[in-house]
Give the backbone structure.
Amino acid sequence: MSELPTRLEVEDLQQNLRAVQDRLARKHEPAALRAELDPLHPADVAYILEALPLEERLLVWNLVKTEREGEILLELSEAVRESLIATMDSKELVAAAETLEADEIADLAPDLPEEVVQDVIRALPQEERVLLRAALSYAEGTVGALMDFDQITVREDVTLEAATRYLRALDELPAHTDQLFVVDREQRLKGTLPLARLIVSDLDREVGQVMVPESMKFHPEDPAEDAAQAFERYDLVSAPVADEFGRLIGRLTVNAVMDHIREKSAETQLAEAGLSKEEDVFAPVWNSFKNRWAWLAVNLVTAFIASRVIGAFEGSIERLVALAALMPIVAGIGGNSGNQTITMIVRALALGQIQSSYWTKLVAKELGLATLNGVLWGGLLGVVTYILYGSVALGGVMALAMLLTLLLASGMGVAIPYLRARLGQDPAVGSSVLITACTDSGGFFIFLGLATLFLL
Amino acid sequence: MSELPTRLEVEDLQQNLRAVQDRLARKHEPAALRAELDPLHPADVAYILEALPLEERLLVWNLVKTEREGEILLELSEAVRESLIATMDSKELVAAAETLEADEIADLAPDLPEEVVQDVIRALPQEERVLLRAALSYAEGTVGALMDFDQITVREDVTLEAATRYLRALDELPAHTDQLFVVDREQRLKGTLPLARLIVSDLDREVGQVMVPESMKFHPEDPAEDAAQAFERYDLVSAPVADEFGRLIGRLTVNAVMDHIREKSAETQLAEAGLSKEEDVFAPVWNSFKNRWAWLAVNLVTAFIASRVIGAFEGSIERLVALAALMPIVAGIGGNSGNQTITMIVRALALGQIQSSYWTKLVAKELGLATLNGVLWGGLLGVVTYILYGSVALGGVMALAMLLTLLLASGMGVAIPYLRARLGQDPAVGSSVLITACTDSGGFFIFLGLATLFLL
């Protein structure tokens, strides 16, 4: 195993990277470059691969020792992982996967060609094969997909002395072993024995007397997000995963949970900007296009609808061209205000903080806030409009349109997540597109409609 | 200490909440309500408080036992914490804070009145006071602000037997104790002794022979984000924090790091929607207004600038009113495409993945993608425009404006984070506002300018 760096700083990582780049620039030193890579932690090699353009990345990848390829692939982002897997043949992929544990192979499997997965399954010893099949059977986003099989189990009726002897025989404990899992003959979970408790307790006592009898456990079908909240809420390091009969089948560790949280947060951030997934910065143009086109297409449709709303008022704009300059302000502020409301509500919904009895309270509050904003910003814009165009009526229409658009925005900002949650959809996905579509078309309609009514 | 629930599901939390709400509805049962609250984990009481409107929240808060108030305040979001602290007098606050450890008091301190903090400092025993002063001295976002002081230290030259006896005398180990820290007489860190290694090793050996001599350590001034990446990268549970002389001053645990990650991710999400911080869903209108006005004001300014760009072309719009309907499409798609580019680049920058030598490669790629998008979507819109308005020239202007705006968007999408990183600013903050401002004004200018040149 490669060693942990003793002190991490982003600068250290960048130093490694620069050292590799220097070697690459001088070209004829594969042995020296390999010597640079070998002592690095897999995560640090992954960092270097992520930061190199495709060509250099492949040069480095070919110097990585075969037995380390699996663990490094695990540390890579999906996009970069795919770029490397695409260059490997089946034999190399099977060899890389075989160095991993069942739960790790399952993490890699979605990116591997089907026949490679089958080859790997065939090549595994019987026991591992069963675990891998189990791991592959859980959907992404469930506890089952995050769990590993490195749990150490003990029986209730052995002494701590015997348990300690058993641990010594193992030589090294799996990472994140902060507790042993106590099971009966049928593998049913009876409790957990934290190492800290094992160490401070009298060795003559039995496991059953010292264990925590009722420990928090998860089912493999539980949403990963619920488990993540539990780990955070109760500061867990590991937790048992049990099936419907209470039989221990694996464990969940804090590092798997932390990876999940990071990934989720990245996904949200990317989705909000209209990227379907993490992108390799150095991806070919075509890959990036595939990652981004869907959102642009949706946006084109909503923009086109807004454009048709304006088109319906072309007669009014022809007679009062100032409307064309003023209308984007109304729609823009409406969109921003609606996004504020919807973001807050979607977050509160995700944290389970909004009870059904309080929706009317929420609507009332958001409409109150919209009124305050409408009077304030609408009034300000009305005055500015009057100063610019010298028309009190136009200023009044501007102020009123602003107020109504903000009310629309906050109403929709509550209604959209409410309805989506009611319909069993995830309120987060695409909320921002929906609200912006409403406020754009709505804002144009309100402003141009009022202008047509009162000014022409 | 209250017990961990044995099985967490969001539904369980909501059951607790409903039980409390039922009691509240029946009003005259404070004792029963208290009985409902007492067995709950502090994080679960916090969950209930977050989900209740202000009035009900205060009713429940007043039933919480004084000695639990501190730990519950710690679990609350800042906004809700403030709403409760505002109702407590100094004596209550001091009593609540005194139940906490030094690092926890430091977490709470920014929300407490200055005189309460002083009172708490005075009331603490000498040793704790020193720790609290130290904890208070580290800026938010540093390792120092996240660390705690629950580390257990041992000397190199004692036997594992003696170390184990010492641990037994402690009765219970602090949460997240996965390793002991090995220090010399001057508290200089010599290594770490993982509990897992202590358990599996021969008790006659000395700590120095078994310990991990070079363990990863942090400085209190290190950015918390670097530590978070290290915890994730190397799957740590705890790590020592040492001063410039290598003396151990505290430790960082995975739960503090996980809280930090969650908080950061929430902040990003909120900032992108223009909320300055997490909002109490039931906050009074005025509090929400303060949280949201700044972004709306900025947006008003950028929208106003865009409006003046349009104003400069009023003559053109008057002669060809179709321009008014078409221009928001160009600006809108430009904004979306720019946001995609900037989000990807800001993320890659934060992960340290972009080396200075690769910026030109990046620009070339993004411009290539913009050209592809411009030809495709611009061509499509050009055709649609021709169908709608029957003018080949107008369709051509639309297509060309689209292409140029997308090139502008991707150029700015790379340039803005590049320049901000160069100037030592955080490229993430407000990037979305900046790019949208550029693409709005720029898109209107390009489209209306081309139309004026070629059509009129």
